[in-house]
Amino acid sequence: MSSADRPDRGPLHVTGELLASRRIGAHHHLTVVAPGIADRFRPGTFLAVSTGAERLARRAFWIHRVKPTGGYGATLELVVEERGPGTTWLVHQPPGTKLELTGPLGRAFSLPQEPVSCVLVGEGYAAAPMFPLAERLRERDCSITLVVAGADEAHLLSALEARRSARAVTVVTADGSVGQRGSVADVITEVLARAQAAVVYAAGPAPTLHAVAVAAESIGAWSQVALERPLTCATGLCQGCAVPVAGEGGHARLVRACFDGPVFRGDRVVWDQLEALR
Amino acid sequence: MSLQLTSPVMVAAGCGGTGRELAAFSDLSGLGGFVTRSITLAPRPGGTHPRILETPSGLVHAVDLQNPGVDQFLALELPWLVRQGARVFVSMVGRSLGEYAELARRLGRAPGLAGIEVNLSAPDASGNGVFDVREAFHAASVIAAVHRDLPRGLPVLAKLRSDLIRVAESARAVLEAGADAVVVGNALPAAMPDGRPAGLSGPAIRPLALRCLTEVLDGAPEATVIASGGITTLADARAALDLGAVAVQVGSALLHDPTTAGRFVIGLATPGEDLT
């Protein structure tokens, strides 16, 4: 059933407002008022933001937190890494700026029915959705192991908070400035074995997600990966963000990261074809 | 066949997804027409990445006609659109006159269709195997083939190349060959940074699309003309309609704001001051 058939679950397009913007490490944390969108949020869904009329493509961001804020209704917190003219524009807007927002978009993480052991992997700003996901999993009595990774300490998202929300936390940085030196791929097999994971959730660059999906399959765990592809419309209209997934009879078929994803079963993504599309 | 539209607002080919995605933001049944992405006989996987890039006030796109092919489209997409009350115009594109004729036969039998839009060469046609319609008589031969093989009377829209020099001549030729209306203001031929053929759309092309519109209105005064090309605001839509277009097609604007089509339907039905 598509979201279009369920009006209460579908995305909204609203004029929101930037309430606060602060820099934490290498990221900017933006708090936005987005009427109606917070109520529909589920971890793994994302928000599309317009960054001026002359920049046609939307910018997509993971939703990090949903918080009730007195007088404003619920607010959303986004984690933004400055990467180009759109994100630069966005992080330099003063509080009070009106923003065209669309969300929540995409397919959320599926939650297990049983209280099982879950490993959550987040790299860089893409670790953002792992925190609300951890909350939902904890409500279901799942035991949670977190892997937080980044290029360096500045690119680690909320490592401190991670320690509060998980039973065990592994921190990995590429330069070794904090935690273990290396990449997610170096540690994931051991983490999964130690946690006796039944489900692995991951968000980050495609090579990291690939490594997680392979490791999960090798121990018989389910994996759910939140893929980040360059988006134009973010709503499923333009076919700019094709992802090859395994279909009937071994043939790959192309689906859209924004509409059919961003969360996919790791064993369904055809990783070598995804790489070839770049 | 004359073209009767319940609203002068249509969704342009390739910018409304399968319809399901747009339905969350714009009521499909209120639109004058929903034009599908271009459908081919066989499925097409589409091009490599990046497929779409932002340029100043525009988008360059090389999706390369990704679509599920006519069989899947008829089985999985058209029935849903028709159930929503959308007036569906199927955009079709072929590699040969024979393919266009075959598509006309297959689509023309589908229940619930409001019309056909013939994609007379996507702007990135060079290299993607689409029948070349550079000359007006090529375009006319495609329309004649479609017209001849449509099993029932359905409006045929001919979407012309944004070739300023030849657009009026092409309009006259396709109308003579049986088209009921022409769509003017298709994406401009462009290239991706790596040189792949692409199309350029968005507000960046609007002045040129408008000039194509006036060329056709002047050079083919009998023509029923639908305007497209970078139409973004209600004022843009009104300008095209005031010049003499019977309808506008909204494309790239939907990728920036998916409510654009729905807002235009209400805005154009309401005289008075524009909010946007």
**CATH fold category name of the largest domain in chain A:** Rossmann fold
Helix count of chain A? 7
Q: Please give the number of β-strands of chain B.
A: 12
Rg value of chain A: 18 Å
User: Main beta sheet of chain B, described?
Assistant: 8 strands, parallel, barrel
CATH class of the largest domain in chain A, named Alpha Beta
Characterization of this structure:
The complex is a heterodimer of chains A (278) and B (276). Chain A has 278 residues and is α/β, with parallel strands linked by helices. Chain A folds into two domains: 3-105, Elongation Factor Tu (Ef-tu), domain 3; 117-277, 3-Layer(aba) Sandwich (Rossmann fold). Chain A has helices at 37-40, 85-91, 130-139, 159-165, 184-195, 206-218, 271-277; strands at residues 12-24, 27-33, 46-49, 59-69, 73-80, 98-105, 117-123, 143-150, 168-173, 180-181, 199-203, 222-226, 242-246, 252-256, 263-265. Chain B has 276 residues and is of the alpha/beta class. Chain B is built from nine helices and twelve strands. Chain B has helices spanning 20-23, 69-83, 97-108, 136-149, 167-176, 206-219, 234-243, 252-256, 260-269; strands spanning 9-11, 33-35, 52-55, 58-61, 88-92, 113-119, 156-159, 181-184, 188-191, 197-201, 225-227, 247-250. In chain B, a hairpin with a 2-residue loop joins β3 (52-55) and β4 (58-61). The interface between A and B is medium-sized, with 33 and 36 residues.
